[in-house]
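Q: Please design a sequence for this.
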């Protein structure tokens, strides 16, 4: 979401020169560039003005640390100010009551129903809650069926309702069911409109009064830029919102919504939707998002994602196998591909690594997920013996494997070559100084133009 903004800022903030102090003169041009970058990212004008004023006030006259260059010192100040504007720290859900009730509000097309399913999955898997979802959208055709289908997909219960019922009677029955069956959380999906109008606001206000929810979350499309912040403000004036969920944050959004919503509404962004799949919901951490914007990566989120998705037992078995000298066969390689897909693919992982923003963009353009699919199909087309001994594949076996997987011979040869490289890397991992060796190997094999940020190196440590 923050690609253009990140590119502009990471280049601009390293151009500051000077020695002992940050002054009005040596940051003037950079502040102008930062201002333009934020406006191009569709950040609301009052937010941009406030941000620039805060940065200037913090920066001018500040002594430059001996450990940092002036540009690095200024980058640190911008990072802190970005974090403050987006809310300082992660605001979690306040789940009060038995059951705790969460009301989802927003315009039509913002992705409320999908977000309800994502949040239900988040609460079930990560918070270990028993969740019931219900739709009171009696206007949109098949809205209730859509929620029922998604609820089945994420493994939660959906309260049955029909479009001929009144929202008030659906809510009353759902609340009664949730109490009787001891659900921890009741998630309520409401109807949207194409724009903010009196009918929408009066209905949602009546629903809120009846529910008295512990959380009222406004779901907004990040692709709408600063309009997202303005719509959030209109809803906030009609409803006592407790937080915001940004959807479609993985799309071609310029990032303005994330920087504007908190400042304009005073309400924290609690989650970001990062894709269409039901597990693509991230808790919003302002400090981590600020790091991503400035090209400094987001290692904490990457570690949390790895802990959540990777199979530790399989990883331990593989490490033991390699250490014993039993090699790294194509069965193991397929397992690694599947694990990577679980973590959102190569570009998703790279963008969370410091200085790897450029590589993430190139990885996305080159379509690595498509290549992963080819590799997996090729390995699936082999016999167990061929997966264990790929070096013994002859011409006829290769032809059969390619025909069975619908791929070309060059695809198979590329797979074998990449597998050999992976084998060498796995051997290095068992030696002393494995991580350093691996990093040197990666840097040596890095294609031109994929060196991350302008300077070619990692950003400073704060």
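A: Design:
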């Amino acid at each position: 979401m923050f690609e253009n903004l990140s590119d502009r800022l990471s280049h601009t903030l390293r151009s500051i020169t000077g020695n002992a102090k940050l002054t009005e003169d040596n940051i003037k041009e950079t502040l102008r560039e930062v201002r333009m970058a934020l406006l191009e990212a569709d950040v609301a004008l009052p937010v941009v003005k406030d941000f620039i004023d805060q940065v200037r006030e913090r920066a001018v006259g500040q002594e430059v640390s001996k450990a940092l260059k002036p540009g690095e010192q200024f980058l640190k100040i911008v990072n802190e100010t970005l974090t403050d504007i987006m809310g300082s720290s992660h605001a979690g859900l306040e789940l009060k009551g038995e059951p705790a009730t969460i009301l989802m509000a927003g315009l039509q097309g913002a992705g409320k129903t999908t977000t309800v399913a994502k949040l239900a999955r988040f609460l079930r898997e990560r918070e270990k809650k028993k969740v019931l979802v219900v739709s009171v959208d009696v206007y949109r055709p098949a809205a209730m069926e859509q929620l029922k289908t998604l609820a089945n997909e994420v493994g939660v219960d959906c309260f049955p309702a029909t479009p001929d019922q009144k929202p008030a009677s659906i809510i009353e029955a759902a609340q009664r069911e949730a109490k009787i069956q001891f659900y921890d959380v009741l998630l309520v999906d409401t109807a949207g409109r194409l724009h903010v109008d009196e009918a929408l606001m009066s209905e949602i206000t009546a629903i809120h009064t009846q529910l008295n929810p512990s959380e009222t979350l406004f779901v907004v499309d990040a692709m709408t830029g600063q309009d997202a912040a303005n719509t959030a403000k209109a809803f906030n004036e009609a409803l006592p919102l407790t937080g915001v969920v940004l959807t479609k944050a993985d799309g071609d959004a310029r990032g303005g919504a994330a920087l504007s919503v908190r400042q304009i509404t005073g309400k924290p962004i609690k989650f970001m939707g990062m894709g269409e799949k039901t597990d693509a919901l991230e808790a919003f951490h302002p400090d981590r998002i600020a790091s991503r914007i400035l090209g400094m990566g987001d290692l904490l989120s990457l570690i949390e994602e790895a802990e959540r998705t990777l199979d530790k037992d399989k990883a331990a078995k593989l490490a033991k196998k390699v250490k014993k000298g039993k090699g790294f066969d194509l069965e193991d390689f397929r397992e690694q591909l599947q694990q990577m897909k679980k973590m959102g693919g190569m570009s998703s992982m790279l963008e969370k690594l410091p200085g790897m923003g450029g590589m993430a963009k190139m990885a996305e353009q080159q379509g690595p997920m498509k290549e992963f699919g080819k590799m997996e199909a090729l390995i699936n087309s082999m016999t167990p013996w061929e997966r264990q001994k790929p070096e013994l594949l002859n011409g006829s076996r290769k032809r059969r494997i390619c025909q069975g997987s619908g791929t070309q011979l060059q695809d198979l040869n590329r797979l074998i070559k990449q597998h050999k490289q992976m084998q060498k890397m796995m051997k290095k991992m068992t030696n002393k100084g494995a991580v350093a060796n691996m990093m040197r190997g990666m840097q040596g094999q890095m294609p031109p133009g994929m060196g991350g940020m302008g300077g070619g190196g990692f950003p400073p440590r704060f």
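Q: Thanks. Anything notable?
A: The chain has a mean pLDDT of 76. Strands lie at 100-106, 131-135, 157-158, 185-189, 215-221, 243-247, 269-273, 281-283.
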